[in-house]
Write a structure and sequence with these properties.
- With 246 residues, the protein is mainly beta.
- The protein has a single domain, classed as monomeric porin ompg (Porin, Beta Barrel).
- Helix content is 2%, strand content 61%.
Length: 246
């Protein structure tokens, strides 16, 4: 099963340094037994640094490294690994950023089976971060994306990110809504007779409640359309989670 996740595009126009670990228990089998063989645990690591000095010729924006590990294998072994790296920068005064991004990963097979790739994708586009009363932060992003199938796919990806704080920063509501196109024909034996493009959608609204210092508990809801299946239906899978930010 192919899972191609596109996630966070966090660019906040002040200096910020953040690292966080999130541990999620995905309840997709509980809510969709027909299409999901099991519930599983996912570990996220995210490193974010934003810096917009406004003085040098090349003005760096955010740098983001995100790693996701899905424990979908037998006896909760690692079944899939995903990585995302992005860097934003600008050469001008208006806070419209150029952003470069790479995503890719591996599917790890059971003993005796075959592994698979999460196909490399490279994108270049523009991003506009903005905020509201220092309690809500947003980013709108649009870019050209190159996906390195045997028959490469040339597409447009757009994303909207939000982060909103409540109750004196004790509650956070955040997430992405991402849409992109992709060629149905990847140049392999499985897709050689397909034609045209498909539109995919991914979202991950999440709500966290701060417990003590860097620890929070909460939930994420993963929204998929044409991401883990080509069938024309939305898939909605909740998690329960704990987060540590440091």
């Amino acid at each position: 099963m192919k899972i191609f996740l596109l996630a966070s595009f966090l660019i906040i126009p002040i200096f910020m340094f953040s690292q966080q670990l999130q541990l999620h228990y995905d309840l997709r089998h509980t809510v969709d037994k027909k299409h999901s063989p099991k519930n599983f645990t996912t570990l996220y690591f995210e490193y974010l640094k934003t810096l917009d000095s406004g003085t040098s010729f090349i003005k760096p924006g955010s740098f983001l490294l995100k790693i996701q590990v899905d424990f979908t294998g037998e006896k909760n072994n690692i079944g899939q690994f995903y990585m995302q790296v992005s860097q934003a920068f600008r050469f001008w005064q208006p806070k419209i950023f150029l952003q470069l991004q790479y995503t890719g990963g591996l599917g790890i097979a059971e003993p005796g089976g075959y592994g698979y790739y999460l196909i490399n994708s490279f994108s270049l586009g523009v991003a506009h971060p903005f905020s509201w009363r220092n309690k809500a932060f947003f980013n709108v992003y649009s870019s050209y994306q190159y996906t390195a199938f045997k028959k490469p796919s040339h597409d447009i990806i757009t994303a909207f990110y939000w982060l909103r704080f409540f109750s004196n920063y004790k509650i956070s509501f955040s997430g992405n809504l991402v849409t992109w196109t992709e060629s149905r024909n990847h140049g392999d034996a499985y897709t050689m007779n397909k034609r045209g493009k498909k539109l995919s959608v991914y979202g991950d609204p999440q709500l966290f409640f701060k417990l003590h210092k860097g620890f929070s508990v909460g939930s994420k809801v993963s929204l998929y359309y044409h991401v883990i299946t080509d069938n024309d239906r939305f898939q909605v899978y909740p998690t329960v989670a704990i987060k540590y930010q440091f």
